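Pasting two entries for a bug report.
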Amino acid sequence: MTDIGQTLREARMRAKIDINDVETATKIRAKYLRALENEEWNLLPGPTFVKSFLRTYAQYLGLDARLLVEEYKRRFERPADDGPPLAPSLRDRDRERRGVPTPPLVSSRVLAIGGVVVVILAALWLIGHFPGGGNGKNNTQANTPTTTTPPAATTKRKKPAAATPALASLRLVPTGPVYVCLIDDKGNKRIPGQTITPTTPQRTYHAKRFLMTVGNSQLSMRVNGKTLAVAPSTGATNYVITPTGRHTRPAGQGPNCG
């Protein structure tokens, strides 16, 4: 597919949106938006933020956010490293400087086993030195205390909420001859009441709102990244299309392309 950054930049420039307006709407800093468009992933905080910012920016521009995130994961995401080794302590560094070998570290498991052994030996000593103990008549079972280590608390990082796109995106896909009247929120007639066919060149339109009338159901449309069909009807169907989706309007409330 086209490069991720190029796809974002071209969509923004087609919609004539300044990057500072995107920053205001999405709450993503402009330098991070430019890093996404230039695919400078090393300038972003990390893979989690890259995917979150990419998803939010794509939705704002009316692009398929899931497809762009999957493309980033396929091309750039790598398994996480195990992390840097622990730094040696001051005492260990001093031993190395003086040429004294560093004693091997004792694991917590060995220390725990040693503690249990000490407790058992102490219990046996008490049984043998107090009355009633060690004569073979009373069998006393030593209860070995066990300790459990609570799991380390995990901190879940909240993902930034997806911002609502400022513009609606619309692309028409006729499957047969169909009458279309399409007007944007500024009154511009994007399709001034004409019959389009599968051979008619089509493009993606962007605006804050569209009013549209279609003459029949021989048409599907791509609204904000989702493909929607037109329900069969005995007459024309009116729609209003916004960044939040597509809604039908009653007869007589469609656009006027006359």
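Entry 2 (this is the one that rendered wrong in the viewer):
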Amino acid sequence: MKYITIIGIFSILLFSTASTLHTPPIVIRHDKSDAEYIKLAEQFKPYMCHLNLPDCEGTIIAEQWAITAAHCAIEIKKKLEKGKKHCVIMNDKKVEVQEVIIHPKWKDEGYHDMALIKFQERPKATQLAKLYTDGDELGQVTYFVGKGYTGNGIKGIEKTYGQLRAATNRVKSVNEFWLAWEFDDPRKSSNQLTDYEGISGPGDSGGPAFIIRDDEIYVAGISSFQDHDGVEGIYGVTEYYTRVSQYINWIRDQIRH
């Protein structure tokens, strides 16, 4: 796995913040059919909140709340501050946004890429994802979902967005801020490789990394940025998701207010 310095992480995150509309659907294994990844996503659709901005997703976590990345939600917050209305999409239904809460340390520190979106009401056909509160993410298989651009690990990004897909990956490293994993090449021997190995592509920012435990769906991460050497989405790239378990108190405090 390619590790980067704290300064490197900060620089990449600043870049992704400035490039919200062009940063991390799902990039898949070259030896699997696209239809399998589309099928895998079906179970997660009721938990998804499409921000109705290019390249951004969220996860429904409470009756009037969704969680997403700060670098996505900031665009909605700016729109609301100008007195304009904004609607997100939940299970094909439009829902008006009431409020956006950006994590207070995000702009100052470059980390904490997290935000909450409060909406008027939750459509009946949607479901609530639980917050992942345990600190045992290392080594676990995550399911991440989005409908941005797709492609495969050999060619990288090659198709347009709009179709919901899901993929899996195994958490390879954790720290105070991030869950990280690498897009493993199925042509090489690796005990980290998953059946539906993949990585996010342009269009999945703010989307969830789910962990399934006892048939319950938990949101454990939020899509933030990808570390790559010029070519996004190819085998070997490393992806970083904001680590939800480190923000449980902040999330609950905001929702209660």
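Dev reply: Rendering is fixed now. As a check, the viewer should reflect this: The radius of gyration is 17 Å.
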